[in-house]
Amino acid sequence: MDFNQVILTAPLFFLAALLFSSVGHGGASAYLAVMALLGVAPESMRPAALLLNVLVASIGVYKFHRAKAFSWQLFWPLAIMSVPMAFVGGLIQLSPQFYKPLVGAALLFAAIQIFRKTRKHALQSNIHEPSRPVLFGLGAGLGLLSGLTGIGGGIFLSPILFLLNWAETKVISGVAAAFILANSVSGLMGVLTKQLVLPAYLGYWVVAVLLGGLIGAEFGSKRLTNSSIRRLLALVLVFAGGKMLWEGLMLASAG
């Protein structure tokens, strides 16, 4: 990896942060994809992606909370269970060639359902709040899945909340941003207990994602319509799901 590659790919980090932050996500899956293309050492990819995720998710939390697109009642039961379970999931070793295609297919299915629902102009007028035990269980399950896959739990949380009509679209984005921030900070703290190896040019990527995150979260929290956010969410899910499905298939074929 040389300096020219870093400069040429910085716009990719910017665009990833712009897109993901508009729906309350941090963009870790996209950052990992770009770093893989650059040939970044595997031991450097995870801490770098977590750090970038924390920065972008922090912006999202601030922007969506300031726009009153947030629900503490929805967030805290999810987060209080997800953070410890994400740690447990990180201790479990599963074969990527099995779980990656499964999770990728699930994300693609969720993207299709959201897109179909948006095309039908389905309104979220029948929003109903789930019970607290249900949120505890969902938070625990998503935290475990997040730890197993190494992807921020928000990529799983947003489509579930949306498809079950548990909150308004922008509130879902705000809750997802806080959920991702909590899990990413927890994951980063775990990484800090080991010898930390970061990419040499991380500072350029930090600037790129901060700019993208600021613009994306601003538009997502204040200017984008609910239908636009749903379409962008479907696009994000297609990217993340397609990435995991492809990686799983490549691992299976190599094995």
Helix/strand layout:
Blueprint: H1 3-21, H2 28-38, H3 42-66, H4 72-91, H5 96-119, H6 132-149, H7 154-163, H8 169-192, H9 202-223, H10 226-254
Key descriptive features of the protein:
255 residues, mainly alpha, 10 helices, single chain
Q: Your description of this structure?
A:
The mean pLDDT is 86. It is built from 10 helices and no strands. 79% of the residues lie in helices and 0% in strands. α1 (3-21) runs antiparallel to α2 (28-38) and α3 (42-66) packs antiparallel against α8 (169-192). The protein starts with a helix and ends with a helix. The protein has one domain (3-254). The protein has 255 residues and is mainly alpha-helical. The chain is globular, with a radius of gyration of 17 Å.
Unreliable spans: none
Tally of DSSP β-strands: 0
Approximately how much helix is present in the residues? Answer: over 70%
Radius of gyration: 17 Å
Global outline: globular
Overall residue-averaged pLDDT value: 86
Approximate strand percentage: under 5%
- Provide the succession of SSEs: HHHHHHHHHH
